[in-house]
Amino acid sequence: MGLEMLQLQNKMVGQLHPSSFQMQETNARLGVGLLAMFFYLLVGAIVFVRIEAPREALELEAYIEFRDYWTQRMVRAGFDEDEIDRLFANVRDAALNGIWVEKNVTNELNWSFGQAFFFSGTLISTV
User: Fold this and answer.
1) How far is CA 33 from the centre of its chain?
2) Residues of the chain by 3-state class (helix, strand, coil), percent to 5
3) What DSSP letter does each residue of 67-104 carry, written as one string?
4) Which of 84, 76, 77, 52 has the alpha carbon at shortest distance from 92?
5) CA–CA separation, 35 vs 125, rounded Å?
6) What is the pLDDT of residues 4-50, one digit of tens each?
7) Transmembrane residues, as ranges (predicted)?
């Protein structure tokens, strides 16, 4: 059914003979639409940077203080700075992959069947 509709559409488009004025008008509308979309994206990017950048700078400063504090404590305890860097990198990588365990609590996997089903539905509805 879909292929037949596409073939019919191609036949109909082939029979159309728009004037040069209609083509210019269509191209102008497309250009204005693209410019409006670009302007909207530009304004949106500026708004997000103005809102999020100060908070991100504060969080980075707090993280640097936190890391310096624990690095000093661990160096005093006899750890090498390379080992400390590997520890922080491993914790970061695990957290970025959705793995976070506090104390001795069992942790659910990120890709349970229900979550995978929801993700698939979201993907289908977006595409």
Assistant:
1) 25
2) 80, 0, 20
3) HHHHHHHHHHTT--HHHHHHHHHHHHHHHHTT----TT
4) 84
5) 27
6) 777 777 777 677 777 888 889 989 999 999 999 999 999 999 999 99
7) 30-49
